[in-house]
Amino acid sequence: MERNVRVRFAPSPTGPLHIGGVRTALYNYLFARQHGGDMLLRIEDTDSARFVPGAEEYVVEALRWLGVEIDEGIGADKEGAHAPYRQSERKEIYKKYVEQLLADGKAYMAFDTPQELDVQRGKIANFQYDASTRDMMQNSLTLTKEEVERRLSEGDQYVVRIKIEPNIEIHVNDLIRGEVIINSSVLDDKVLYKSIDELPTYHLANVVDDYLMEISHVIRGEEWLPSAPLHVLLYRYLGWEAVMPQFAHLPLLLKPDGNGKLSKRDGDRLGFPVFPLQWEDPNTETVSSGYRESGYFPEAVVNFLALLGWNPGTEQELFTMQELIEKFSLDRVSKSGAKFDYEKGKWFNHKYLQMKSNEELADVFQHFLVEKDIIEDSEKVSRVVGLIKERANFVTDLWDQSFYFFRGPAEYDEKSVKKRWKQDSPERMTELIEVIQTMDDFSAANQEIVICKWIEDNGYGMGAILNAFRVAIVGAASGPHLFDITEIIGKEETVVRLQRAISFLSKQDEE
């Protein structure tokens, strides 16, 4: 009987969610939705020493911003039937399976102190705790039953280790990489449980939780591939091998040059975020940039990430979330790492910005204007956005491209003035003011007709007049069609700017 598709995203609350983790969550979500399945969010907080306040809430907010919907678990509308979904709240559940493994001889208690382990590492090169070394250590396999009971009664700290027999072939069937065969002799007897905090390690907790939460597919990062044989053994030891989930290990996100795993340092060095949302470290108060606060649209981030490691097999690059759900498949996920091309990320955001209506962008842009004490009606802001959005990658770019629609130039670009403001420009601009003041219809189309006729009738150079006019209005040799600008700022403001430029730039000439 075919199982219902159930996937999980299970981050640790040790800091902000890395963009690689976001991609893992996204691929899980796309897979679940395509197959009519469920997406769970579980918090794997068994490493109590590394817990960071606010990290769990950050994960929930980030996924919500990106449109990755949680059906069950943390952040879901209804938590679900397998609560609790924080591993730190499931201690008693894990304890039962620790006891089962001990009773079945599949695991054992180890009382070795950190100092005793260091001694062995000093004696044995590449020491690992396994079948070849466990007999010389302090554990329930080498100690008498009485000695073990004495140590437990005296409160000695211990860990529970899995007992791995040597020379067993372990088969891991990976949906991306095919069959991977590992000899158990290369594995160490990993710690499954720690008495000091009564918590399991990731290895036991994730296997128990995936079984009890009926997870059908474990889609996670490539860094967990070396642990997969251990997890397969745990399913076997616990008697769950027949319902073991299918594995898919995703390729790494690589540095932009392809040399190693993408890190926060790469983002700091090259100037791009590696976190979905801005993060303020509660301990150091260091602030790290986020895609949301940097002006990215969530749908652009989703589209960008989806194509980092997955190929749709066509030339199509722009996908809605629904299109991604329909087309995504694990068999088109690459085995090799994907270079993080942050310039491509900007390109995606530019494309999505162009697809937004002027009204929608204006609504967002209004917030930036208010921060600069500029209050404008939405119709004007929409018109401005329509003229300049093609030049922007982010909503935050709109101000740099459009400030002159809202404020006259406070200064004039030196290169533009030198090239376009000629000796006779003050006289010509004074004449232009007179022409403008005769105009009742100040539409862009009428301005162009009247002003161009005036230029032609007087034998002035079209470029010379219009270039000087632009410098006076904008402060530089940039911006969209000049008469579109003057129509929006209006006749009165156009005259004021011309007068200011004549006065300011004439003084500069005198100096």
What topology does this entry show?
Blueprint: E1 6-9, H1 19-34, E2 38-41, H2 55-66, E3 72-73, H3 91-103, E4 107-110, H4 114-123, H5 145-153, E5 159-162, E6 169-174, E7 178-183, E8 191-194, E9 199-200, H6 202-212, E10 217-221, H7 228-237, E11 246-250, E12 253-254, H8 264-270, E13 279-280, E14 287-288, H9 298-306, H10 321-327, E15 338-339, H11 342-355, H12 358-371, H13 378-388, H14 397-402, H15 414-420, H16 425-437, H17 444-458, H18 462-474, H19 482-489, H20 491-510
Description:
The chain is an alpha/beta fold and 511 residues long. It contains 20 helices and 15 strands. The protein has helices spanning 19-34, 55-66, 91-103, 114-123, 145-153, 202-212, 228-237, 264-270, 298-306, 321-327, 342-355, 358-371, 378-388, 397-402, 414-420, 425-437, 444-458, 462-474, 482-489, 491-510; strands at 6-9, 38-41, 72-73, 107-110, 159-162, 169-174, 178-183, 191-194, 199-200, 217-221, 246-250, 253-254, 279-280, 287-288, 338-339. Strands 4-5-8-9 form a four-stranded antiparallel sheet.
